[in-house]
Amino acid sequence: MENTYIFLPILAHMLLVIILYIILGKVKNKEAAAGNVDPERRGLYDDAWPASVQKVNNCIKNQFEVPVLFYVLAGISFAINAVDLFIHGIAWLFVLSRYVHAYIHTGSNVVPVRRKVFTLGLLMILTLIVYLIVKIIT
Predict the structure, then answer these.
(1) Which domain holds residue 30?
(2) What does the radius of gyration of the chain's CA atoms come to, in whole angstroms?
(3) CATH number (domain holding residue 74)
(4) What is the per-residue pLDDT for 77?
(5) Is residue 1 predicted with pLDDT exceeding 90?
(6) Tally of domains in the chain
């Protein structure tokens, strides 16, 4: 498998972040037009915005937490020329879990379901860590 293919799931995740920013802009415009925003507080305080905006904003913040570990692991696998079908598959499963998590987070936001999807993604990260440790040692 081509080592550079590991960057495809990274780019797919970056696309998710851009999509979320577009959604955030639309939701903010809608809520501001409806008069549901405290104009004096909106620049500095999240509570100036209604829950619909905070959901998307929080989802965006989530994209810069565990996914950072994914980026590092992808970089490690690229640097040591370890990208194989297994790593690539786990990487795509992780990114898929982020899309599903974002869909739930910005939609119904049912926390127990969202938590399960988050945990699945976290297990993908753990799997990559263990797999890379084994590859490095052997």
Answers:
(1) 3-137
(2) 18
(3) 1.20.120.550
(4) 97
(5) no
(6) 1
Nearby residues of 43 by Cβ (< 8 Å), 6 or more positions away: none
What is the rounded average pLDDT of the residues 68-79?
A: 97
3-state secondary structure of 82: coil
Q: Return the axis-axis angle of helices 66-79 and 111-137, rounded to nearest 10°.
A: 20
Residues 50 and 41: their CA atoms lie apart, in Å, by 12
* pLDDT tens-place string over residues 93-132: 999 999 999 999 999 999 999 999 999 999 999 999 999 9
- Give the DSSP H or E segment for 75: helix 66-79
Q: How many CB atoms lie within 10 A of CB 2?
A: 9
DSSP-based three-state secondary structure for 84: coil
* Amino acid code (one letter) for 137: I
Q: Which residue has the tokens 């409806």?
A: 34
DSSP letters spanning 37-64: S-TTTTTT-GGGS-HHHHHHHHHHHHTT
21: left (phi over 0), alpha (psi -120 to 50) or beta: alpha
